Amino acid sequence: MTGSDFIAPPCTEDIQILWQDETCLLVNKPAGLLSVPGRHPANQDCLISRLQQQYPSAKIVHRLDMDTSGIMVVALNADSHRQLSLQFEKRKTEKSYIAVVFGMVAQDKGSIELPLMTDWPNRPLQKVDHQQGKAALTHYQVLNRNPEQNSSRLLLTPITGRSHQLRIHLAEIGHPILGCDFYAHEQARAMSPRLLLHAETLHFHHPLTGELIQGHSPCPF
Predict the structure, then answer these.
(1) Which stretches within 33-192 are classed as H helix?
(2) Rg of the chain taking only CA atoms, in angstroms
C-alpha cells in the first residue's frame, strides 16, 4: 500500500455534513476515502472532489489519512481558507482521536515524543530519526483495557501534526493501532478489517467571528 502505483479501493460510504455556514463545513470523512486526489490517475475520488460537486468553492485545509475516519473542517472561500490554514500552521486548533491499540497499555496516561521524517525509499512511510526528524509529540490517555481481546482504547491528543504521527508513535511504544497496514505487526493488523483510528473532536476559531467552534464526530467503533 505504498508508492505511486497504489490504487485506492472504491469507497461507497457517504461524507456526512455535520455543520455548515457560508464560510466553512464540518464533515465526517469515512474510512477508506482519500482526503485529496492521489498521485495515480485512478485515485481521483476523494473527499474534496466529492464536496466540490455540491460546493464548487470548497478548499481543503488539512488532511486525514485515507484509512482514518473522522472530523475535518473544509473552507468555502479563499479568506476562510487563509484564516483556517493559519490556525493549523500556528497550532491554534485542538484535535483528539480515538484509537484501539494492541496490548495492555500499562500507564493510564503518558506522552510520546519521537522525531519523525519521511522514509524516502519507502514513501509514504515515515520513520523515527533523532538526527534529522522533526519534533513530534502525542499525549495519550487510556479509556479502557480489554484483556480478552488484548487491546486498549485510547484518547489521543497530538500536539504536532506530522504525517502518520499517531500510527508510528504507538507502534514505536509496542502498541500499534489495530488494522494498521503500515506499522502494525501481523497479529495487530489481522485484529481489525479497518484502521481503528478516528478523529473525534476538532476545536478551532470561526474564520469570520473568531468564536470557538467545537466540532464532534462520534466514534463508529
Answers:
(1) 47-54, 78-89, 165-172, 186-190
(2) 17
What residues pair up with 139 in beta bridges, in sequence order?
A: 111, 157
Cα–Cα distance, 107 to 99 (Å, whole number) = 16
Distance CA 85, CA 75 (A): 9
Tell me the one-letter amino acid at 13. E
**Exposed / middle / buried, residue 215 (Cβ in 10 Å: 0-12, 13-18, 19+):** buried
- Record the cell numbers describing residue 11, joined without a space: 469507497
The identity of residue 20, as a single letter, is Q
Residue-wise pLDDT for 77-117, tens only, equals 999 999 999 999 999 999 999 999 999 999 999 999 999 99
Does the reported pTM lie above 0.85? yes
Q: What is the DSSP code string of 8-73?
A: PPP--PPPEEEEE-SSEEEEEEPTT-BSS--SSTT---BHHHHHHHH-TT-EE-S---TT-EEEEE
Q: Which residues are tagged catalytic? A: 65
101, 170 in Cβ contact below 8 A?
Answer: yes
What pairing do the DSSP bridges indicate for beta strands 69-75 and 116-118? unpaired
Relative to beta strand 197-205, strand 69-75 is parallel
